[in-house]
Amino acid sequence: MKRYILALAAIIIASIVFISISNGKNKAVKEGGILSVNDIQADPYAYKGTVTITGVVAGNSEFKPPKGVFLMVETSEAKICKQTGCAKFYLPVKYEGEHPKEWDEVNVTGSFSEDRKLIFKATKVDVLRHLTF
Predict the structure, then answer these.
(1) What pLDDT, on the 0 to 100 scale, is given for residue 81?
(2) Is 104:130 a contact under the CB 8 Å cutoff?
(3) Model pTM?
């Protein structure tokens, strides 16, 4: 009987440890600390502070960004579609410097707007390469 109680106690403790470890994790960050557009899509405001996001600059969408803002889509989605206008999610990026061109794969570094409007305020934009098909 003691063996069953000890086994049950071990299972309960292991479950508690597993749940507490998985609940305490921050959002997944890829190697090098770079997120993708898909990573942030579900809950952008879960990412606090400065983050780096990678994606492809989109030129066409139904959403017309205001001046000083460009749109990003998931890199893999753009490659599969072979166009940037078919994305399910567009990340608006506000950047004061020179904007990259459509189909540029970029890393943007900055933070999300705190006024609960979905906009990523970039302080740095690095063009990785230009995608061509």
Answers:
(1) 83
(2) yes
(3) 0.70
